């Protein structure tokens, strides 16, 4: 997509489907290219970013990274809907991992979760009850009327139907589809065919891994056949048990990057770390595991804990997430509540519940007992996935997620954010490449990152006003496909700049020079209140002030707050 004006000078251009430079379009033979494009193609091939092995990179499949990511997308709220305008988008806060009475270990009605989420500022959410024998038989159909009623009652909230997939050979994932007449049929067929609970116990690990890939391809086939308008997969709590190996994550993504788009950067269950004097006294996210026979042996022990509430795969600069980004793989992060039973709530499952027979618990009832040992928050109470959308609609949310136009935060650390890669000095409102996008510039062009952040000025739901104290810019070289699909390190990625935030400011505008383009790279951003930090696992030279390892039994989630953005790539054209 261009910038909506017709003139030719050298500033950043964003890649989108159907807008490839000739050097990147492999349907054009070398003999038909200009000398400069032949040179560019040679550079890209040498970097491993074109041709065999690069099919899932942001270059070979740019639409997976930046479709609809243009800064100039039109946007408008419909007659209903919330969101905040920033950087040419309407930013819609949401949560893609929520359980109800249709999960064996949860208790609330769909409407209960939705009303709380909406009251706590969410614009969209996904109901994701557990895949299981009971749910596969009756759950998808039985919950759908409740979801449709919620859509009617809360028109200012986009309520998706999904499920939490037991990924064969791995952990869990959110799977959800665009609302429509076939949503139940597609989800039911998917669950009954591909949920780990429904597969033969005699399956080998290789058979189960193949089934996971087949499940993702099935979802893509349903979109292609126009049974549903869209389907998305996001891996949940990926490091919690160590069983999501690096090669499985790569295989999911490569199975279909328009469906498999990312993983939780931070898990839900954040209240579980509140100390026992007034809480559960456990681990944030229920990350209290150790390696098992099913775990990937290469992961360090530190991977089984959260870091500032975030999953090790995301929190480690130069770690697993960065290893995927360094390949050029569009792979995004989110946060959510994983809400089952809520801390300080005063309800319990309805008496006489028979989940095994009915596939649901009876409606909750008031108990008068405060749940101090529950591990969850209501949707929207603590974590938000903020999606830059073109409008208030189901499709726009899915498009924004798929494009990676997403930033996440805990505890309402900031109010809003716009990040752009620009040609140095270009400040026009309709230029620059936003989160998830691909900026293509001529080699030698000077680029810079611009950040506009609205700081928090109202209390969060713990009754204090969060204060942003530091913003970190993280840059990594795009090195192309890895030879070892179980690689989980990106040695060229590091924090390149930290900005201290002056006390009392209402907003900040930051600019960081990215230098003259001599090789492909990506840039991402995080920020913190600065309360708990330590050098990252890759060392202080890589990450001097990263999130601190959370301690089981002493990990108050309000004690340190962070935000993270998805990346922007800068590539030669």
Task: Note down, in words, how this protein is organized.
Residues 94-169 form the Polymerase/histidinol phosphatase N-terminal domain. The chain is an alpha+beta fold and 573 residues long. The protein has helices at residues 35-46, 62-66, 110-119, 133-153, 183-194, 205-224, 246-255, 312-315, 320-326, 355-358, 394-403, and strands spanning 13-14, 84-86, 89-98, 124-130, 158-166, 172-177, 231-236, 260-266, 332-335, 347-348, 365-366, 383-389, 406-410, 414-423, 438-441, 446-455, 470-477, 494-500, 507-516, 521-528, 533-534, 546-547, 562-565, 568-572. It is built from 11 helices and 24 strands. It has a 17-stranded mixed β-sheet that branches. Helix 4 (133-153) packs antiparallel against helix 5 (183-194) and helix 5 packs antiparallel against helix 6. It is globular.
What would a concise description of this structure say?
The protein has 573 residues and is α+β, with helices and mostly antiparallel strands. It is built from eleven helices and 24 strands.
């Amino acid at each position: 997509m261009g910038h909506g004006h017709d003139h030719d000078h050298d500033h950043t251009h964003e890649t989108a489907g159907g807008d490839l430079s000739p050097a990147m379009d492999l349907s054009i033979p070398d003999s038909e290219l200009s000398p400069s494009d032949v040179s560019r193609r040679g550079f890209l091939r040498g970097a491993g970013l074109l041709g065999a092995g690069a099919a899932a990179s942001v270059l070979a499949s740019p639409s997976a990274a930046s479709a609809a990511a243009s800064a100039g997308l039109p946007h408008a709220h419909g007659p209903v809907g919330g969101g905040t305008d920033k950087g040419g988008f309407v930013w819609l806060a949401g949560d893609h991992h929520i359980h109800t009475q249709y999960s064996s270990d949860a208790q609330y009605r769909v409407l209960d979760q939705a009303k709380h989420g909406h009251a706590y500022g969410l614009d969209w959410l996904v109901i994701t009850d557990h895949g299981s024998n009971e749910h596969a038989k009756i759950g998808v159909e039985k919950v759908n009327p409740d979801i449709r009623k919620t859509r009617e009652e809360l028109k200012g909230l986009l309520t998706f139907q999904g499920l939490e997939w037991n990924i064969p050979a791995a952990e869990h994932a959110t799977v959800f589809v665009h609302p429509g007449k076939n949503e139940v049929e597609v989800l039911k067929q998917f669950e009954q065919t591909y949920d780990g609970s429904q597969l033969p116990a005699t399956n080998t690990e290789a058979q189960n891994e193949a089934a996971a890939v087949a499940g993702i391809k099935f979802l893509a086939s349903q979109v292609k056949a126009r049974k549903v308008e869209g389907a998305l997969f996001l891996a949940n709590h990926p490091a919690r048990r160590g069983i999501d190996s690096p090669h499985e994550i790569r295989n999911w993504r490569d199975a279909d990057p328009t469906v498999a788009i990312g993983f939780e950067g931070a898990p839900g269950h954040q209240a579980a770390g509140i100390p026992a004097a007034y809480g559960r006294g456990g681990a944030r996210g229920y990350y209290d595991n150790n390696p098992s026979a099913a775990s990937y042996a290469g992961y360090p022990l530190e991977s089984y804990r959260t870091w500032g509430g975030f999953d090790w795969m995301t929190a480690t600069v130069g770690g697993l997430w960065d290893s995927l980004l360094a390949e050029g793989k569009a792979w995004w992060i989110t946060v959510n509540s994983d809400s089952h039973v809520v801390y300080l709530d005063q309800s319990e499952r309805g008496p006489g519940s028979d989940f095994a027979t009915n596939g649901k618990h009876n409606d909750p009832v008031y108990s008068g007992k405060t749940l101090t040992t529950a591990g969850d928050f209501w949707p929207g109470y603590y974590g938000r996935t903020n999606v830059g959308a073109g409008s208030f609609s189901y499709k726009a949310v899915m498009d924004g997620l798929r494009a990676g136009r997403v930033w996440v935060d805990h505890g309402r650390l900031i109010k809003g954010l716009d990040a752009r890669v620009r040609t140095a000095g270009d400040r026009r409102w309709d230029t620059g490449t936003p989160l998830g996008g691909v900026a293509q510039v001529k080699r030698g062009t000077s680029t810079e990152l611009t950040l506009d952040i609205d700081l928090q000025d109202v209390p969060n739901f713990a009754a204090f006003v969060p204060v942003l104290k530091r913003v970190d810019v993280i840059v990594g070289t795009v090195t192309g496909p890895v030879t070892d699909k179980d690689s989980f390190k990106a040695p060229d990625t590091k924090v390149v700049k930290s900005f201290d935030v002056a006390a009392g400011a209402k907003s900040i505008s930051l600019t960081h020079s990215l230098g003259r383009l001599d090789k492909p790279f990506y840039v991402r951003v995080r920020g913190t209140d600065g309360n708990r930090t330590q050098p990252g696992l890759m060392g202080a030279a890589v990450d001097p002030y990263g999130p601190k390892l959370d301690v089981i039994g002493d990990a108050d989630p309000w004690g340190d707050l962070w935000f993270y953005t998805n990346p922007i790539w800068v590539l030669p054209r």
